[in-house]
Structures
1.
Amino acid sequence: MKIHNSKTNLFLALAACAALVLSACSNDDATGSAEAQSDNPNSITMSWPRDIGPMNPHVYNPSQLITQSMIYEPLVSYEEGGEIEPHLAESWTVSEDGLEYTFKLREGVQFTDGSSLTSEVVKKNFDAVLANKNSHSWLGVINVLDKIEVVDELTFKMVLTQAYYPALQDLAVVRPVRILGEAGFPEDGDTSKGITEPVGTGPWVLDEYKTDEYAVFKRNPDYWGESPELEEVTIKIIPDAETRVLAFEKGELDLIYGEGVVSMDSFNYLKETGEYTTDLSDPVATRTMLVNSTSEKLSDLNVRLALHHGFNKQAMVEGITLGLEEKADSILSSNFPYAEEDIEAVEYDVEKAASYLDEAGWKLESGGAVREKDGQPLELELIYDKTDPIQKAMAETLQAEWSAIGVKLNIAGLELTEQIERRKAGNFDLDFWSNYGAPYDPHSMINVVAEDGWGVSEAHSNLPMKTELDEQVHEALASTDETKRQELYGSILNTLQEQAVFIPISYMKKTVAYQNDIESFEFPANRDEHPFNDISVSK
C-alpha cells in the first residue's frame, strides 16, 4: 500500500474554481491528483468531505465510518426490517437469564494478511475496547460487558453483568466492536493510541492513500463471502459541497452519496436535469438541536421553550431541504421501535416564545434589539459542522428568526473534530446533534442521555429529574418485560420533549446521485455501512 503524507493547497484553488462557470475552469483534473484516476472500467470514483483517517476500528473521529465498514466486519449484521443476521459469527445462543451469549465463528475466514479469524483474536479486540471503556460508554453493551471467554478455537462466550436486551444490535455497529487482525495491534495491545496497519476481514483493502486527497480501495481477492462486483473504489476528498457537484458534472465522480454531502438545491438541480439518477433513503435519523442546560442562560426551562417555539420549523425545513426532509415533531421518527407514544408537538408561536422570555426576566427595552436581564444581553452561541451545508443554512436561519424574539445568536462553523470535542467538554450553548439511526436506536439514543462522556448526558445534567431519568433509562435497557419497556420509553421521550433539551428539527435522509453507467444501487439498512458491495457498472 502506498501512503503519501504530504498536503497541498489544491482545494483552495478548487473553491475558487467552483465559483466560476464550468467553461471557465481548467480542463485539468480539478478535484485531486491524477494518481487517483483509475483506468479500471470496473471501478467507481466518489467524493467525501474529509480525510478517511487512520482506520482504527476501536476509536472514533477522524476515521470515517463509511471506510471503516469497508475493511472491518461485525459478528452479526443488521438487515432490512431490523433483522439481526449471522456474519463473522455463524450462530449464537443466549442463556435464559440473558447474561451469556455463546457465539460460533465461521470456519475459513481470513484477515487480509492471511491470518485466521479465531476466538482469541475476537477476545483481544474486546479486551482492547474494555481497556478504554470510558470512551465507549455511549454503546450500552460495553457498559454491561464483563468479559469474553474463549471456549475453543471458533467458539467464545460474551458474559454480561446484567441483562441487556439490545446486545446483538450493538454488535452490528461499525465501531468500536468490529474485528481487527492480530497484525494490526501495537506491541502493547493498546489500540486507543493507534494501530500498526488496517487489517480486517472485509471485502475491501486499502491499496493507496494520500492524506486529505484520496484513498483507493481494491477488492479483497481472498474474501470469505460474496465478493463485490466492483474491483476498485476511489474516494476523493473534496471538502466543498459545490465543488463536488462540479466534479460530478464533469464526469470526474461517478457517485455522490451520504448525508449533507450536497445542498438540497444542488440535489434538486441534478435531479431536474434528467441526466443522472437520484434517490432519497427512508428517514435515517432526526436532526435536532442539543441545548446545554448547564449554560447559565439555558438553565431556565422558559428560555429553552422560547427557543423551541420561536422559529418556523416547517418553513425552515421546506426552505432549506426543499421538502426533501420532513419536519420533526419528536426526537424519534415513527419508524423506530418505541416511538409510537403520543408526543405533544411544540408549535411555532412567536407570541408564546416572547411570553416565556418575559417570564424568565429577559426584557426587551423599547427600541432595543436584544433582550437583557441584570444588565446582560441574551446572547447565545450555536456551533455547527462547517462542511455541512444544511447545518450552515439552518444556523443562519435560526440566527435571523431568533433575533425577532430578542435573542442574539452567534454562529460558529467548526471542523467536525473540534465540534465534537467542544460538545464533550460542555463548551457550547447550542449544537446540532442527531440520534444514531439503525441499528443503534432507540436504545443507544436513550443510553447516551444517561451515560457521561459524550456531552449529551452532561448537557442534561441541570434537569431537576435527571436522576430519575437516568434510572428509567437503565431500567428500560435491562427490562425483559416488553410492556414495561414500552412504558419506560414513553416516559423518557416525553420528559426530553417537555424539558426542551432536544429541539427536533427534521427527519434526515441520505441522498445519492450517480452517473447512468451505474446499473444498481441500494441504500444500506445500517446507516453507517458503505454501499459499494451492491453496486454494478456498465462501463
2.
Amino acid sequence: MRHTRLFFRTSLLLAVLLLAGLHLFGQTPAYTFRDSRKDLDSRVNDLLHQLTVEEKIHLLGYNNQGVPRLGVPVYNWWNEALHGVARAGEATVFPQAIGMAATFNDSLQRVMADAISTEARAKYNLAVQQDRHIQYMGLTFWSPNINLFRDPRWGRGQETYGEDPYLTARMGTAFVRGLQGNSPQYLKAAACAKHFAVHSGPEANRHTFNARVDEKDLRETYLYAFHALVDAGVESVMCAYNRVNDEPCCTGNTLLQKILHDEWKFKGHVVTDCGALDDIYLRHKTMPDAAHVAAAAVKAGVSIDCSSLLQKDLEKALQQKLVTEADIDKALIPALRTQFKLGFYDAPGQVPYTSLGAESISNDAHTALARRAAQQSMVLLKNDKNLLPLEKKKYNSIMILGPNAASLDALLANYHGVSGNVSTFVEGITQAAGPAVTVQYDLGCNDVDSVHFGGLWHAEGSDLSIAVIGLTPVLEGEEGDAFLAAHGGDKADLSIPASHIAFLKALRKRHQKPIVAVVTAGSAVDIAALEPYADAIVLAWYPGAQGGNALADVLFGKVSPAGRLPVTFYRSFADLPAYDDYNVKGRTYRYFTGKVQYPFGYGLSYTSFDYSWKQKPAAAYQTKDTVSMTVHLKNTGKYSGAEVVQAYMLYPTGERMPLKELKQFARVYVARNGERDVTLKIPVADLQKWNLKKSQWEITSGTYTVVVGGHSADERLRQSFTVKKK
C-alpha cells in the first residue's frame, strides 16, 4: 500500500510537471481555460463547462474553497481598500476618503490608488507564496464608496467623496483607474462601486429602510457617479442593503437589470453587501424564504454573495424550478471573467504584477505620498491676524494639548490598515519645531468630563498652544464600528464632545496667547461653537498615518493649505429635512437656500489669487459642443501655493433645476508673484437633466451662466451663453 501511494504521488507530480512543461513550450494545455492564447470568452466558457452545478453554486459565495480538481483556487472575495489596503496588517494609510475629496485633486487620487494596488498585489503575492488564501489578502476590493453624503448625520459619510455628484464621479473614477491599473490584458486589482444605490443612512435601520425617490433625483443625484464609474470600467458594483421604491437593491429589476445591465451595459460582476440577501426575507419581508431570494438574486445578475445564502439555498431553488442552470451560468460568468483578468489562471510570469514583494509595502515613496495627500486635504477655516503660518523664531515654547493630539484613531479613520511608520500630531509638530524649542504635551481632557482639565498651567507658561480636538471614528461611522455613537453610528447633532469645547474655553480663559485649534472629523461639525476661543482653526479630517507630519507642514508654512470642503457646513440639523427623507430638495449646496457656516468648496489660504478672463466661453453652443474657457490666475500674496479653481453652472428656468452645480475644477499651483492660465472644459452633454414626463434625459434650450471662483458662494468671474438644440 505504501508503494502504491508513492506511485500515485509520483505520477501526479509528473503530470503537473508535464502540464507546466507543455505550457512553457507553447503546447496546448489540458484545458482550454488554461491556454492564455485563447480569448477571454472562450476561456471562461470552457471553465464553466467543466464545472458541475454544485461547484458553480459554491463559487457564487464570497468565501469558497475553489475547485481543486480543476485548479480553481481557494478564494475569499472580501477585501477593503478605502484609503489603503485595510484589515490586512502592514500597509500605507492614506487620508480618509472625505479628506481625499477635500484635495480636489483627482490626479493625486489616481496616484494614491495606484500605490494602494501596488501594495495589494505585493501582499497577495506574499500570501499566496505561503499558501494563505485568506480574507483581506485578495485582489477584489470593495472600494470606493460613492454614495452621496447627502446629510451630515450619516456616520459613514466619512467614507465618501462628499455631497456633490460631479466631484464624487471625478474622485471615484480616478480611484478606479489607479487601482485597476493600465494593463491592456490584466487587472492590477479589481475596484467596486458601492453601495448601489440611494444608500446614505440612517445606519440604525439600514437593513430595513425603504428609500423613496422619484426618477429625477435618482438619475441626476444618486446614480450620477455610479454611471460615471461604470463608463470608466469599474470591475464590480455592490448592491445595497436597503430598498429603493419598494424594490430590494440586490434583487430589484429597476436598478440591477433595467439600469445597470440593460442601459449602462455593465460587464463586470455584482456583489451583495454582507448579509443583504438575508435581509430581503428576514427584515424587508418582500419574499417568503431564502430559496426565493436566491433565485431572484441570480436572475437579477448577482455574481458573488457576501453571505452563505446562495451556497446554502440556491440548489433548493433549482430543485423547486425557481431558477435554471442557465440562470446560474449567466450569474457566475462575470465573476469568472474577473478572476481571469486578475491572472488567476495564467503562469505567474505572464502577469505583470507577480514580482511585487515586501519592498513595495509601506515604503518611503508611499509614505511620502501619504504625507503629500494629507497636506493637500487639510482645510484652513480661520486665521485671525495671519497667525499662520507660524514663524519658528517667534515661539520658544509650544504646548500641544487635546484628546486627539496623540490619538491613533483620529489619524486612521475606519476601514484602515496598520502602519509602522505613523506620525501623530504631537510627534509631527515636535519634530518640525526642532530640538531647540520647548514642546510639551498633555491630554487636556477626555470625551465626557467637562470639569477636569490638564495642561492649562503649562499652556499659560508657553508662547503658543495647539489644541487637537473633535471627533474620532468611534463617535461617527458604520453601524457597530462606531460603538460610542448615539444613533447606530450616526451623529445626534453637529457638536463635537462638549468636554472638548469646555476645555478650549478654559484654555482661552487662562491666557491670551495664540491658540490654534485643530479639528479632526469625517463630517461637518459645529465650528461656530469653538471659533471664539481659537485664533486659527484647521480641519484635519482623519488624515492617515502621516497626519502629524502633514499638519506640521501646514502650520509652519512648508506648504500653504488649499484643501476645500466637499460638504456644506450647516448651522444646525434643524435647517435640514428629516434624515430619512431622500428627496434632494433643501439638501446640499445644490438645493439649500439657507445660511450656512461654510459653503461647499470653501477653504482659506496663506496667499491670495486674482482671477480674470483669458478666454470667455463662446456666446452660443449646440448640444454636441464643449464649453471651453480659460481663466488667468495670478498669485497676489506673500506665499507660493495652490488654488482650487471651481466652475459652477446656473441653469435656465426649468423643473427643479439646481441653484448651481459644480461642473469643472482644477487644482493649480502658482508660485509667489506667479501667474497661470487654467483652461476648463464642460461638455454640453453633461448639462442634461431628467425629464420626468418623458422619462428621459434632455438638454434644456436657453441661457446658462458659468460662475468661476474659489468656492460655491464665490463669484470671481461670470459669463452667460445660450444652448440651442438642433
